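Weekly modeling sync, notes
Attendees: AB, CL, MP (scribe)

Item 1: holo prediction request
CL wants a bound-state model with adenosine-5'-triphosphate before deciding which constructs to order. AB pointed out that an apo prediction alone won't tell us much about the pocket. Agreed to run with the ligand included and paste results into these notes for async review.

Input as submitted:
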Amino acid sequence: MDEVLKPNVDSARIESVLHQLDPDVDRPAHVIATEGLNLHFGSKSILSGVNMDFTRGTITALIGPTGSGKSTFLRTLNRMNDRVVGFRHEGDVRLDGCSIWDPGEDLLTLRRRVGMLFQRPNPFPMSIKDNVVSGVRAHRIAKGKQLDVVAEIRLREVGLWDAVKDRLGDSPYRLSGGQQQLLCLARALAVGPEVLLLDEPTSALDPLSTESVEELLRRLTPALSLIVVTHNLGQARRVSDVTMFFHDGRLVEYGPTDQVFERPRESDTARYVNGLMG
Ligand SMILES: Nc1ncnc2c1ncn2[C@@H]1O[C@H](COP(=O)(O)OP(=O)(O)OP(=O)(O)O)[C@@H](O)[C@H]1O
Ligand SMILES: [Mg+2]
């Protein structure tokens, strides 16, 4: 075979392992959608009437003033609010057309399909390698030696492999904050989510670590749908395709990020993206 046409051995190996682990890796665009979603805590309405479609391969930024319901909305998408005292919802969230509250929906499967990364890195108290593969083990996606391959693939994917390959058995707490966040991202990716929810994922990180996470988010699409809450408007502009602006208990406006920032339809959006609203 012509030297130039030889497949790259590493990427061929990685692809084949990914296919074994996840036969649906070539599946068509999935959609998570909200339909007339109203969210409340006790008697207080947090958001009402949110209708939104999220497609595979899209990064959506959720922006809005503090207390506008961004985290509440995000956490609803994988039922993280279900057990919060006083939380109620009306309307629906549909993953691939099925309600996430359907009695037949298994919560563990939902959380596998719709993963989450929090503001502060939260590695588990176990080795670096075990952090990456904990979900893979729990979901019985892989076992034994396969786990080593999964750990390597995911750590390479997030750019951490060289930094940790000689200390996979060590505690993650000696890694820097940025490295810990990348480790948590590797852990979230390891179970093959279709949607990843990120709540201010870089607000605890320095500018360089922020840049690595942002680059990584861009690389993760088109395989994944990412929904990112951010207070950093520069970040929303840099990484997202679509922006949603929440204010005053509702989704005021959404659209392509360039449009929302450069030609907002609503005056509140204009005030917010121009820094005139806190
Ligand atoms: N567990 C809870 N019980 C009662 N009210 C809550 C609870 N969590 C959040 N809220 C209220 O819901 C509203 C929306 O909060 P949320 O955390 O979603 O806002 P946010 O847009 O993420 O804000 P921030 O930008 O500060 O993170 C706020 O008024 C908050 O006080
Ligand atoms: Mg929040």
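Recorded for review: The beta strands are 31-41, 44-55, 59-63, 87-95, 98-99, 114-117, 195-199, 225-229, 242-247, 250-256.
Action items: CL to compare against the apo run; MP to circulate these notes.
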